[in-house]
Amino acid sequence: MSGTAQHLGTIESLCTLPFPDADSSAGYGSSGPCHHLVTLLHAPEGDPADSGDEEIEDQFASEREALALLLTVRGWGPPDRFALTGAAPRAGDTPLPAPWDHLALTVPDVHLWRRADRWTGLGTAHHGPGLPLALVAFTTTQDPP
Which residues contact 119 (CB under 8 A, 6 or more apart)? Predict the structure, then answer.
């Protein structure tokens, strides 16, 4: 099975996977009472000067677009594109619920679908200088910020 097919299967399984009673994390993902967040792809760690971040970011953008197209033709419809830049709360603001709290700090924008009682999305996480990029998928019952 190709990487894209595996990612598609992971995304679709998130839509039916029950939420746990408490927050937990394992490997490259986390879950909680209202969300699941998984890493589909992550860039290799290494010297940021040698990492080819632009090439990797282009690869992740292509994978995200391919997955969005496949979900669209599978009956999900076209995704909304939702900017998270500026969504992180300022001092004194009410904290965002998971997974939006993490996404608002690391993902500039997401491809987002509303399916039944869940929001499901894809984005490229930028964890910071020298840290690897990651293509993430998530599902949540919490409305976007």
Answer: 112, 113, 139, 140, 141, 142, 143, 144
The whole-number pLDDT of residue 92 equals 74
Q: Give yes or no for residue 91 having a pLDDT over 90.
A: no
Q: Quick one: which of 40, 109, 110, 113 has its CA closest to 72?
A: 113
What sections of the chain are H helices per DSSP?
Answer: 3-14, 53-71, 100-106
Give me the half-sphere count of Cα atoms (radius 13 Å) on the Cβ side of residue 96.
Answer: 20
pTM, two decimal places = 0.89
Tracing tokens 């004194």 back to the chain, one arrives at: 92
- Tokens 């939420």 belong to 19
